[in-house]
């Protein structure tokens, strides 16, 4: 689970839709007209990426726990250069009832993030082919939609996204790696100029045993199920409507709010904890958990003829009455979590013009425990001062987890938070940016972008160097975007680390890191 003690992992899935056919709270059946133009419709893309990573360990040595900030070459631990290349084919398809009013939709990923060259047939130097990959095709989502006299009823496994994607992100962007999905029943209806929605998620169930004479699963621990109930209200317009109003010189205000609550009475840790030997799942493995969490999120977007400003703020609170993961070993103090995350995006200039610029900013609340707490392994030891990551609670000595974590697919840079830390957490950032369309014709456009990112730790104790200033990153982009779905992007980056990334214990200064990424997208 990405956010084991915060409320973000179980916040409502409220999607501001993009090209993908991922459902959400702004999808209230617009495409389920009485007689659809197509009975079956599909969109998707083939994506290929390659990257060269230079000195991402920053030449600052290991942390006190013996970990490097980034791996180094096996054959040359003093080397600087690593490489990466991967691909993915994604297709979103929908089948509509000829009379309208009903659709079944799916998302299929093939060779998802497959490392190119990772399956040579035989001895690598003599390989003439790549072996077929097991489980190469995955159905990521499958859900149904039906229009009723009162609104849209959706059910199944569907995309999960809200606002900017800071809190929960459907992973629909061309460069996204993951994306959230939920097993959900949702009802959505437009009323009084707003979209109103309620949803229930089967967030976690089990353990299971097969029913007699069939392969149907029976949940033998219903009290351990995790439930999520969400509500939302939005004033929202599709992109084509915003553009039309902007051409008419009008400003379009949009906003949304939701509340989400998750709870779990009992737990069966043996079903998800790594163990040296298999553990029989019986009554002795069930323990009280007493887990409740609440999320509240506000989203605002203002767009006009020469500007676009969008912001999101999320407040999360959670409490675990019994934080122990070992049945029979109980802790007296509960673990609590209070988190705050804020993101702002802005762009000024004619959206259809040759130049625009803006300033993005964000804040993710922190925790004074060592390390950023981005992806701490379950059951890991408490971090030491100077570590990059680690659990932010250490019961019974430390019983709070207050670091907000942006979704990993909400990216504000290319090296520090994307590659080294893994996501924005326990941090403050400022990101000025500018974009110039250098060339455009009927076939496509060539764009040049430049962004700079200043990053600081919310708590100096969280950074490896014990200082708040983390680094300055420069992220230029050269991109050709064809009219028919072809995209070619060159995305280099340079990170100039500051004192927060130094190795204070060994008196080693962190050195400059570089990255070069090339991305190809063939859309359809």
List the main descriptive attributes of the protein structure presented here:
524 residues, mainly beta, Porin, 18-stranded antiparallel β-barrel, two-stranded antiparallel sheet, 2 helices
Your description of this structure?
- By secondary structure, this protein is mostly beta strands.
- It has one domain (8-118, 136-273, 284-523): Porin.
- Helices cover 3% and strands 46% of the residues.
- It is built from two helices and 20 strands.
- The longest helix is centred in the middle third of the chain and has 9 residues, at 239-247.
Report the CATH architecture: Beta Barrel
Radius of gyration: 24 Å
Count of DSSP strands: 20
The structure class reads mainly beta
Low-confidence parts lasting 5 or more residues at pLDDT below 50? 1-22
Major beta-sheet overview: 18 strands, antiparallel, barrel
Please identify the top-level CATH class.
Answer: Mainly Beta
User: What is the beta-strand fraction?
Assistant: over 45%
Series of H and E elements: EEEEEEEEEEHEEEEEHEEEEE
Let me know the average pLDDT. Answer: 90
CATH topology: Porin
- Tell me, briefly, the overall form: globular
The separation of the N and C termini measures 33 Å
Give a short summary of the structure.
Helices cover 3% and strands 46% of the residues. It is built from two helices and 20 strands.
